[in-house]
Amino acid sequence: MTNPTKGVPRRHPSLFEPATLLLIAVLCVFGAIIGMQLLVSLGITANTSLIGALAAMALARVPLAIFARYRSIHVQNLAQSAISSATFGAANSLLLPVGIPWLLGRPDLVLPMLAGAFFAMLLDAYLLYRMFDSRVFPATGAWPPGVAAAEAIKAGDEGGRKAVLMGIGFGTGVAASFIKIPLAWIGFAGSTAVSGIPMSAFGVAFIGNIWALAMFGIGLLLRGYSGQLFSGPTFETLIPKGDLMAAYIPHGFMIGAGLVALLQVAVLLFRRSEAKAGEATAGVSDVEVKRALGLGTVGYLVIAVFIAVVGGLMSDMSMGMLILFVLYAAFAAYVHELIVGLAAMHSGWFPAFAVALITLIIGMLIGFPMPALALLVGFSAATGPAFADMGYDLKAGYLLRGNGADPAFELEGRRQQLFAAMFAFVVAGAVVLVSYQSFFDQNLVAPVNKVYAATIKAGVAPGVAWQLFIWAIPGAILQFIGGPKRQIGVLFATGLLINFPMAGWAVLAGILCRIIWEKLRGASGEGDMEVFAAGVIAGDAIFSFFDSVSKNFWKR
User: Fold this and answer.
1) I want to staple 94 with a disulfide (CB 3.0 to 4.6 A). Which of 260, 357, 432, 553 is the partner?
2) Which of 150, 159, 160 has the alpha carbon at shortest distance from 50?
3) Averaged over 11-27, what is the pLDDT?
């Protein structure tokens, strides 16, 4: 096995070297524009990290001295970190939140929302940077998209057997992504719709926690087949028409699981026992995590106050209600990022839109007025995506830097990745600031914004609070049984919130293939399964990106 630390330079490449900064600036603008276009046209944001790495790899082949530094895998890592940060930052963390007040007829709240979302996004990513490689968010966690990015970069740099295996996985991911399966084949009798195979879900099953992913897959299937499983007079009172979302079951499960997950994090940090050797290789201690969480508490409170003041909420609410808004908004943002981060770490998927909807529903039950609800859900939605994406990027860097074998080099590399992400967020903020009006003038907003706006206008139906409470109980029990390492409650609720049954079949099929692979190969071929899986994920990501871009092009 190749020594991952062999040839590692003592000094990590800097973001601010002119050639590197120029490449990253161009990639950030490109990533921000692509992210916004895809969000408003298709409702999704593609993972562009591999596009950045491939761009650096391609330029490294140009026989000019100025491009020589792009041969460094660490420069390629900075490129993939920056473009993915710009993409998710511009689309999910900025453009999505500002579309909510605009749809509600309050354009005066757009700029306050943009400013608040921008600060929340920066804090979001910085908190993950501070907590990465701790017992809460270990560097040894799955972080599947990060593994895919790292393995792709290593395969391009080293070649050899691993590159061949990576290529096989990549080809499998791309080829299978072309296949469209009629939904009638998987139990939806009478349906004429077709669905692609989400090969990223298949590949993730080889990398992530098998218990968490199994519950994620089961949740996806229960949500996808709920209309068939729970329809009829037996379930009509409990689940009308078999619609889990209408019965607020996924929301309740996530509330219960999320609160228990928050308590488990607190217990993990405040218990007296020390972390086991090897759990925090770069010295991110529980004390440092507590400081980061304290900083986050203060930061989110300050941002919530800022949003309330510049949004003019003092004229819409009493002082008591205003204080309650600030406290709830800060708490919701905090819990939102932790839930999204845990789901992203274990599965590579994060239910940011759905968890923000839960925040909104609870805010409506509290009784906040419409302007406050618009700012609340935007603030919540702005946190989480940057947090998760930073985790993916730091995981990629951790693998490329030798799994923490050189702590000083590892910490310097993380610092440079943080600089790259923050630079990307600033670029994303500037791009959104100068372009959001052109999108809104064409009535182009994220599709989920229409869900938020419609929910606010419709109000909360009677009995919702009771439904949330009832279904929070099994969610809490499930999360408690699984413990903080497996996160089965959070992942099961994540699956329930996503209507994509094909992904459920892909995850469970991947788990079965993983078990068979491990039985056949045993201890031989160490790392082969992960390299193949990374290739599958990378192939699916590249296919999805170009497929989404092409659809957007022809749509326009």
Assistant:
1) 432
2) 150
3) 88
CA distances from 112 to 116, 229, 275, 433, 448 (A): 6, 45, 42, 12, 20
Cα gap 383→324, rounded to integer Å? 20
> 348 or 103: whose pLDDT is higher?
103
> What's the whole-number average pLDDT of the chain?
83
Which residue bears the tokens 């994303």? 428
Start-to-end CA distance of the chain, whole Å, equals 49
User: What SS3 string covers 40-98?
Assistant: HHHCCCCCCHHHHHHHHHHHHCCCCHHHHHHHCHHHHHHHHHHHHHHHHHHHHHHHHHH
Taking CA atoms, 235 is separated from 88, 119, 222, 252, 466, in Å, by 40, 45, 14, 17, 17
Tokens, residue 367: 């009784």
Residues 6+ apart with CB under 8 A from 205: 213, 217, 506, 507, 508, 509, 510, 511, 513, 514, 533
Token digits of residue 110: 């757009």
| Residues ≥6 apart with Cβ < 8 Å to 427 | 25, 28, 29, 32, 86
Q: Quick check: 376 and 360 in contact, CB under 8 A?
A: yes
Q: What percent of the chain shows pLDDT beyond 70?
A: 91
Please list, in sequence order, all residues whose beta carbon lies within 8 angstroms of the beta carbon of residue 372, skipping any fewer than 6 positions away. Answer: 308, 311, 313, 316, 317, 325, 363
- Contact criterion met (CB below 8 Å) for 177 and 192: no
Tens-digit pLDDT profile for residues 421-435: 999 999 999 999 999
Report the C-alpha gap between 116 and 98 in whole angstroms.
10
Q: Are 76 and 86 in contact (CB under 8 A)?
A: no
Taking a C-beta distance cutoff of 8 angstroms, is the pair 425, 85 a contact?
yes
Query: DSSP for 523-552?
Result: TSSTTHHHHHHHHHHHHHHHHHHHHHHHHH
Residue 203 and residue 534 in contact, taking contact as beta carbons nearer than 8 Å: yes
Tokens matching residue 189: 């009798």
Quote the radius of gyration of the chain (alpha carbons, Å).
Answer: 23
SS3 207: coil
Q: What is the dihedral of CA 37, 38, 42, 46, to 10 degrees?
A: 180
Q: What is the pLDDT of residues 181-205, one digit of tens each?
A: 888 888 887 777 788 888 888 888 8
Residue type, 480: F
In this predicted structure, the answer to whether residue 263 has a pLDDT above a threshold of 70 is yes
Q: Which residue has the tokens 């992942």?
A: 491
CB count, 10 Å around CB of 231? 15
Element housing 182 (H / E): strand 180-182
HSE (side-chain half, CA atoms, 13 Å) at 340? 31
